[in-house]
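Hmm, how's this folded?
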Amino acid sequence: MKEVVLSLITGIVVGFLFTLLRLPIPAPPALAGIAGIVGLYLGMRLFQWFTVFWK
């Protein structure tokens, strides 16, 4: 849980600073970003499933 809170705080600070400095946000569009995160998670879980299955 600590990692989630630190990640959220870091994201808020970075978003604030980028907006203050009028820089583009260093993130993909919302839907593409969410799809990428879900894809990474599913790939990790699939790999874990294969390693358990093939033992």
